[in-house]
């Protein structure tokens, strides 16, 4: 009961902190709209690169443009949700170095909620909107033999993928408590991970695919469920039921990330500044 009450209190605190930053950000509405549009355009450049590539080839490792667009849209939409919710966590190292992290520790509010809600910005919606638009187009353009299970799997895949990325953000923040200056290492697994997932798994070596399936299970963000939706071969010849395992993988990742965060927080020693 105590742990559940702590989760409820953390979510309540996160909502209040995020709401404060939203009200602050909306003070200058023109700036908000311009920045949001700029973010949408910048994130769209990745897909523009894919379109340019397909202007020269008919397929990529046997995958058509709508199928690659499905991978792209699912990855970017999931990451966009996670980035909206936890995109401030890579800045934790800066807080530790300048001593402001100590301020968070003395407040009667869960520290993770404070770190997650810090500098919350609706401007990050640009990535989610752009990814969702590409995903929506791919669902219409791709040759998919729709069933009820496939229709339900698409939103389940997006939400589970977002939870997996949030877990990576939290685990990366926990690592920064030890390293203090590891934002780029964290970005390699978050931004780098979502970029990798935009392309078919057959493009990459089997060792890399094994790593992002069994070690850091980013493959369950889109590669594995997408194989079922699109009727493509499963990565590493995984059994068919794994297409529906993303929620379980996400729950496991979140549990491990929470454990890593609590361990890191207990081991934290103030920098003294």
Automatic annotation (TrEMBL):
PANTHER family: INTEGRAL MEMBRANE TRANSPORT PROTEIN, SLR0610 PROTEIN-RELATED. This is ABC transporter permease. The chain crosses the membrane at residues 30-57, 69-87, 128-146, 152-175, 208-226, 238-261. Pfam families: ABC2_membrane_6 (PF06182). It comes from Streptomyces lusitanus. Keywords: Membrane, Transmembrane, Transmembrane helix.
């Amino acid at each position: 009961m105590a742990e559940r009450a702590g989760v409820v209190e953390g979510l309540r605190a996160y909502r209040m902190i995020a709401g404060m930053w939203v009200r602050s950000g909306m003070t200058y509405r023109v700036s908000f709209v311009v920045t949001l549009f700029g973010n949408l355009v910048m994130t769209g450049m990745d897909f523009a690169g894919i379109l340019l590539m397909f202007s020269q080839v008919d397929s990529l490792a046997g995958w058509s443009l709508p199928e690659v667009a499905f991978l792209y849209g699912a990855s970017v939409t999931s990451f966009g949700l996670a980035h909206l919710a936890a995109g401030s966590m890579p800045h934790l190292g800066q807080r530790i170095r300048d001593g402001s992290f100590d301020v968070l520790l003395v407040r009667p509010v869960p520290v993770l909620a404070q770190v997650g809600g810090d500098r919350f910005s609706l401007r990050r919606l640009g990535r989610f909107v752009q990814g969702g638009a590409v995903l929506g187009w791919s669902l219409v353009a791709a040759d998919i033999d729709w069933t009820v299970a496939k229709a339900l799997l698409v939103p389940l895949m997006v939400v589970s993928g977002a939870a997996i990325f949030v877990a990576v953000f939290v685990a990366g923040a926990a690592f920064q408590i030890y390293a203090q200056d590891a934002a780029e290492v964290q970005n390699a697994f978050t931004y780098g991970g979502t970029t990798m997932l935009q392309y078919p798994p057959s493009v990459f070596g089997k060792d890399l695919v094994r790593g992002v399936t069994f070690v850091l299970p980013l493959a369950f963000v889109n590669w594995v469920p997408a194989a079922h939706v699109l009727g493509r071969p499963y990565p590493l010849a995984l059994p068919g039921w794994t297409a529906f395992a993303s929620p379980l993988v996400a729950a496991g990742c979140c549990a491990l990330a929470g454990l890593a965060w609590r361990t890191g927080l207990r081991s934290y020693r103030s920098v003294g500044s």
